[in-house]
Amino acid sequence: MSAASRSLAAMAIARFPTLVIDCPDAAALARFYSALLDWPVSSSDDDWVEIKADYGQMLCFQQVEQYAAPDWPGQEHPQQMHLDVVVDDLDEGEAAVLELGATKHEHQPGETFRVFLDPAGHPFCLCSS
pTM for this one? Predict the structure, then answer.
């Protein structure tokens, strides 16, 4: 067992998972969930809105062009969500998730986060703290 594998058993790689929901209008969907959950908007820009509970749980809404609503339970337009998790160090987090079986996606649209695919192909992001 490698040193990284041993350390994985001792501590989590990441913390504070955040569900990110793709949608045609981030502000409108955030208002809906904000009212539903009584969580205030904590951060907002043109295409990204976050709502946050007083105990720290957060939902994020990402506006996407040419949004196609899910056709659940069908798979022609599957559900559009991904998981964001916070890591102390992006390089160390990357090495750890790659060892677990993740794949780094070729498209990296930002500098404060990195996009990976889980072993089943679902995207998730490691975000700097």
Answer: 0.75
